[in-house]
Amino acid sequence: MAATKYSHPFLDGLKPFPEGHDDVIQEVREWMKSQPHLPYISDEFILLFLHSNYYKVKESESTIEAYFTLRYNTPELFTQRDPLLPKNKVILEVTQMVALPKVTAEGHHILLYRLADTDYSKLCFADAVRVFCMFNDIKLSVDSLSEGYIVIFDMKGCSIGHLTRVTLPALRAFMQYIQVAHPARLKKIHVVHTVSFINQVMCLVKPLIHSNLYNLLNFSSDGPASVVDLEYLPEDYGGPLRSVKDLHEEQKHSMETEYREWLIESEIFKTDETKRIKKPSKGLFATLTSTFRGIDID
């Protein structure tokens, strides 16, 4: 792989570099050498995978395999990562994706996602997944080795029309990414302001959810204050922090300026299937290498 201009996965590097993990980093490094289809990555990148898997080597290797294979097989979701592309700008206008400023006592970061524009005709689901993954890559860079993430999906303003915008191939890819490829410690997923058609949503999603993720889900017909303390919330929800709109605009600006070239460059991180020694067997990685062809782009 050609040398990169930027540091990945941490734009500013991992400082200070945590000590005491040299042996497991080297173990994963040696395994990657035996997998020529995988790209070369920095020790910092390996450490991110190890940290997300609580320094379990085999689990980290599985995440690495899934991460780079998904990025190869779903170019619709992991290329065209320029935040200034018109279709990405649309998603950044119709949705608000924010990292809330205050970290919990346990060291967990809180992420909030909601609609800014309720016109479902403006939402392309595959584009939304792409920008969601871009945002989350930036969060991993900003937070370094986070102790964990609490995610809040606010469904206020969602309609049955939004459900019709979901394309199954992109949904499958999204669920695989979150469950087996995303190098982060998910602690809880709160779905708030649940809608009347939540059962239809779950009928669509539940077959794609592993039991360990399902156990993290919590549903509330009330707002975010019903699932986290007010001290962590923006003023929109009765908390002391800046508004969601202000936070979104600030973080969108960072994506479009500070992280723009970094995001574009990150498209190189994928498998080279011409170098794969052994094709994945039936099961998870067979799914990763075959399921996502022909993703619908609205």
From TrEMBL:
One of its GO terms (cellular component) is membrane. Residues 87-245 form the CRAL-TRIO domain. This is CRAL-TRIO domain-containing protein. It comes from Pieris brassicae. InterPro entries: CRAL-TRIO_dom, CRAL-TRIO_dom_sf, CRAL/TRIO_N_dom_sf. One of its GO terms (molecular function) is phosphatidylinositol bisphosphate binding.
